[in-house]
Amino acid sequence: MPEGTTQERETAGKIRAADVPAHVGVIMDGNGRWAASRGLPRIEGHRRGVEALRAAVRAALDFGLDYLTVYSFSVENWSRPVEEVTDLMGLLKRFIRNDLKELHKVGVRVRIIGVRESLSPDIRALLDEAEDLTRDNTRMTLVVAFNYGSRQEIAGAARAIARKVAQGLIDPETIDEQCFASYLDTAGIPDPDLIIRTSGEQRLSNFLLWQAAYAEFVFLPLHWPDFDRQAFASALTEFASRERRFGGVGSPSKKQRFLDRILP
Ligand code: IPE
Ligand code: IPE
Ligand code: MG
User: Fold this and answer.
1) Tell me, what's the pLDDT at 8?
2) pLDDT tens, residue by residue, 229-264
């Protein structure tokens, strides 16, 4: 979002910052280490991770976000032991079965991004059901990146465009950023303003590579099951203190103005 068009939002005193991002992407990492550090099996970390996800959605609604994108399973995660993959698929199914009604009730629209074709029919049906039921909701969009890989998404978009060029339906000269973005899974969704990753790792791991061109990044040292409202608020506060420039010269005093506002 270009400087100057960032919406100023009141957040009911939950955080002091005024600049709440419209779209936050979250790389929910560290479930396994959270469990291991407690002598628990990795699945227990994933279970607690689902609880943290529920709380994150509630907080995002309270903070007034328009979009929350959560990275829940990457195309590379198939390389994990088969038992863990089975557990993760089971948790997704349970999450949708248990939480879909409530999400719908509170006005959340669900969008799924990632490769659908290679998923089992029951999971595909659940994903379709979640999108269909909540299609017209407007309070917030929860984008679930499941079996998602950004490079695969970009290659898929290139393939789809190439097909249309070969059929004479698209003139290659008309392919610009906007055209390309409309072939990504995230078509119609604004780019993330902020990407949060838990677990201390500082990498994207194939998440929203195209879309994150001008995102701010916040890396938190805690593991995903420990990500709570407070941690979310602190990431948003950090975001609010950043000066986004989008390649321009920006307004150098913005950070100072923010600090002046929040420091006694
Ligand atoms: C994130 O936690 C959940 C998924 C990737 C599905 P991890 O399972 O990656 O936990 P760590 O990084 O091994 O601790
Ligand atoms: C990224 O975490 C994927 C998800 C959170 C779903 P990983 O744990 O798979 O990433 P790497 O392997 O540490 O890069
Ligand atoms: Mg991990």
Assistant:
1) 45
2) 999 999 999 999 998 989 998 776 666 777 788 887
Domain range holding 152?
21-243+253-262
CA–centroid distance, 29 to ligand 1, in Å, is 5
**Protein residue whose Cα sits closest to atom 10 of ligand 2:** 205
What residues line ligand 1, using a CB cutoff of 6 Å?
28-33, 73, 77, 88, 199, 224
Evaluate whether residue 168 is within a structural domain.
yes
User: pTM for the full model?
Assistant: 0.91
Q: Are 226 and 34 in contact (CB under 8 A)?
A: yes
For the chain, how many structural domains are there in total? 1
Q: Which two tokens stand for residue 40?
A: 């628990």
| Rounded (5°) CA angle 57-59-63 | 120
Tell me whether residue 5 is in a domain: no
Selection from 229, 167, 225, 217 nearest residue 193 by Cα: 217
Which amino acid residue places its CA nearest to atom 14 of ligand 2?
205
Crossing angle of the two packed helices 42-63 and 82-105, in degrees rounded to 10: 30
* Contact (CB, 8 A) for 233 and 41: no
Q: How far is the CA of 75 from the centre of ligand 2 (A)?
A: 10
For 85-121, write each residue's pLDDT tens digit.
999 999 999 999 999 999 999 999 999 999 999 999 9
Ligand 2 centre from 71 Cα, in Å?
Answer: 9
168 CB-near residues (< 8 Å, 6+ apart): none
